[in-house]
Amino acid sequence: MLGSFAVLRKQSLLGDAISHAALPGIAIAFLITGTKETNVLLIGALISGLLGAFWIRGITKRTHLKSDTALGLILSIFFGFGMLLLTYIQKQPDANQSGLDKFLFGQAGTLLARDVWFMAIVTAICLVVLLLFWKEFKILLFDADYAKTLGFNTGLIDILITSFIVIAIVLGLQTVGVVLMSAMLLAPAAAARQWTNSLGVMVILAAFFGAIAGVVGTGISASQNNLSTGPVIVLVAAVFVGFSFIFSPSRGLLFKQIRFIQNRKDLELHKTLAFMFEIVKGHENISHPHAVKILNNFQGYTRKSLGKLEQKEYINVEGAMWSMTAKGYHFAANLYNQQANENE
Amino acid sequence: MSSAQIEIQLIASMVAIACAIPGTFLVLRKMALISDAISHSILPGLVLGFFITHNLNSPLLIIMAAITGVITVVLVEFIQKTKLVKEDTAIGLVFPVLFSIGVILIAKNANDVHLDIDAVLLGELAFAPFDRFLVDGLDLGPKSLWVIGTVLLITIGLLLAFFKELKISTFDAGLATTLGFSPIIIHYGLMSVASVTIVGSFDAVGAILVVALMIAPAATAYLLTDNLKKMLVLSVLFGVFSAIAGYWLAHGLDASISGSMTTVLGILFLLVYLFAPKKGLISVLYRNKQQQIEVSLLTFLLHLNNHQEIKERHINHLNEHINWQRVKSKSVVDLALKNNMITIEKDIISLTKKGKNFTDKAIDYIITNDHSKIESIKDDFFLFRG
User: Does ipTM top 0.85?
Assistant: First the structure.
């Protein structure tokens, strides 16, 4: 759901970066407290995730480095630092350290009921805040300058959105793991984007797609041996995206192609009609019949296009002769005017 | 230092150099994240290669992985061309999918083999010297040294051969096209090199470190210089430095080498980010502050210029009129005094000749936006240099 905002804000890969950046937080939280309490580790992850997110913003804002560089930089550096800490922890004498790397790849199967409740509560809080600040989020998203002139504290709202994305990511980490988190954030939103231009509908659709991908993916992975949940969920979500890309009515590739072919056919018909119009124009009686033969050396004329024109009642065909109807004449004349107007 | 230690540092440095060169161009072309995508999505290629050969050391694995890397790039470009989503979203969609396929392939079919996701992603440099390259029983050194050496030679060779083309197509794709180079060929060439480099390096240092080695040195160098050649040299230096320093850090902490190399890179970047002379955070903040004061000064001088009445020029009046805090107005007045632009007589401020001159020029500039008018003031002030 929050992914919608990320996609629209061109920060799609933020999810990827933050999920990697959360690692040192987990390691440090473990080093300090010595427990493997999920909540403590999550708080660590949250803090380092936020730190990463704001450093990224700082880099893009204050220096001439582009956002992709900043993202890649933070991602790899934080993750590398996390690895350093993890390996350091592994060499420590207490035996309690294994299992931290579970966070890396995630395993929905290991979730406890308590964790699920925790996630549900946080999701609910996110929802409430989203509804409360809906208007502000929306304005900031599409026209940041306008939001500023209206007197909204854009910086604050921005921080709010970023924080929520970070929270969502950190929570999701346990389920699908670091690598696949970005797909979880993006795929539903990218799929939803293809079906609608309205933000509200998009957010709802994205949540819906995400939920379905989760349920179906878990189902598939449970029904077979040796299939970890995360990758299957991601693949299911990817199928949604592919389906949306191809079949969405207004933006989909399939319909785009169909429209393209349609347009080309229309153009051919118009060309033929325009050519006929040129011939007919010289005669006083517009319905004066002409031989079909004279169209032969005109490109774009086929028997089929002639049939189509007749279907539309622009012309009458009788044997080897054709004649233009009043309707066809009118249409062709306007067609000509339209072109002339456009040329001007 | 034992020979294994020297070998590890040698491998690390060579990887660093091999990564820094394509990395520089990726950063400049705003495609840094492609390296991240490639490093993840080569997994299915590796797995497929393994299924075909059943041998973890076969060169086919590397070739397959490199091909998957290029496929990733092509897919990303394709999705982006449909204009349904933006480029970064395309990247974010493609690589998790490929990675998932890889993970599932491993889980379904290769459970009993030593092909571990952790090993692929994280790599372990410390074991590199144990994997020897043997020809007729003759020990020719670690295998990864040969792999990365070859990659490095190819990269440097290509860089020298196509430096001009790369440079032009990076900075001005339009010019490159008119000159008759195909930016597309260069683009895919660069991508293939990046892909091969990532594949060649990652079994020594792991996928994440490859990304760090590609982006971090180049980004750090980019903060220090605008010159492409200097940037290349600097990023190579940073890479090698982090390789060696990282090794000793890992040695001291008894932790992962790749992790500590990345950490060194991170610290380097942080330092440069804060202290770089022109583009660092501190100098940018300082410059912003400076410009703010100069704008205030200009406002102040313009105000004086507009008001000949004594009442308007009283020093206390200015506080209310331009709505400045006391401290700020004091610093502005001090600055103006220091530059001999105003004089104060019995709390009444008036412009000096120099101040008047300056103000007139500034007004001229604001009205006409003609840079030649302010050549003479430029020396005194930051403001007009930007």
Answer: no
